[in-house]
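Notes from hallway chat w/ T.B., transcribed later so I don't forget. T.B. wanted the structure written out for a chain they're using in a teaching module, and asked if we could keep both sequence and structure tokens in one place. Agreed to drop them here.
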Amino acid sequence: MDERQFGPSAPVPRGRSRRFLHLGRAVGEMAAAAAADGLAQLARGQKPQLSQLMLTPDNARRLAERLSKMRGAVMKVGQLMSMDGKDVLPPEFAQLLASLRDSAHTMPLPQLAGVLDEEWGAGWQERFRRFSFNPIAAASIGQVHRAETHDGRTLAVKIQYPGVRDSIDSDIANVALIARLPGLVPAGWDPAPILERARQQLHEETDYVAEARLLTAYRDCIGDDPLLSVPRLQADLSTPRILVTEFAAGISIDQLAQGAHPQALRDRIAEALARLALRELFEFRLMQTDPNFANYLYDAASDRIALLDFGATQPVDPELVEILRELGRGLRDRDRKRLRETGMRVGFIGERDSPAQVEGVIDIMLLSSEPMRHVGPYDFGNSDLFGRAYRSGRDQYVENGFASPPPTEMLLMQRKLAGVFMLASRLRARIDVGRLFAPYL
């Protein structure tokens, strides 16, 4: 795992009222800043808009700081949207989400020690030759520490924040209440689906026993891959709130976009992860749906990519796989009739949708699948596809609306595939996407 900088340590607040107070303070700070800004603009003879006053860069920083301290569900809401904000999200949201990806507050030592004592019992230190209390990773649900055992194993120890699992439902209810305030979210954006998915996903991700099973199942699917690896579970040390695996060395995959890493290396890695996403869907029928770049570590010494974090892993129904295979053929052939039929079967198109809505959805599907029809390697580094797709979706919403939001499982798959392609864009990679899809269509 790569070394990262985290925010200062802060206790994880527990209890609905206390956590709501933290969130309320953030909104109060934002409102106060918006009021001061609005008065200043009025004094200059300008007519301020509430949404512009609330979604300023300074307010984004205030909110990100508060969410980072709270962790749990409120932080997950941002992370679920956090693949890459450039050209897709409003600048203020992009800045906020980048903050949530790249930094997090950690537990103070007394709180951390309390969790370890509860899970491993008194004298747990005797089980290790070395245990680092400085985390090597920190996120919305827990933080990761490095440890070494007396028998020579080097381990990554993921420790769940206290109270996170119990606070999920109340956190989401609090966020839903706050999100109703005018100007806090962009006009026309309905936060309900992302909040409900955050609630479901957090319940799944805080079940470390289930994650251990998924990790092992996924590792079996990968097998002896020359480029990809999954750290082995250490069942003797894992508990319902602590998940222990082999330690994986490397840097977050998106860091290969920095410096003078060869084009061939960036192409090979992006292609491997794109092929993996297709194997998850069509072969494994088991998809890790969180494409956070930090879940992929590249180790130059072994020239391999370690795959991490399987809390958001979902089985894929075999019947859905066949529908998606047919959908892929429709995208490849630009067959609008086939896309209309398969789009309805997977929930992209609803029975009540107007003809304009249906045609608009098909247009967006065809636009988003541009790389798979491109002849030869698609140059993601020089493509503006994501900006065009975002603007097309925005215009479709404004003109015709979307009567039928896709089902949750489809949203997760979309997010995973979009995340892989966004990584390819970040790495400025060139991938023959059509060649990767061909065996499955």
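Follow-up for T.B.: Residues 252-441 form one domain. Might be a good example for the class.
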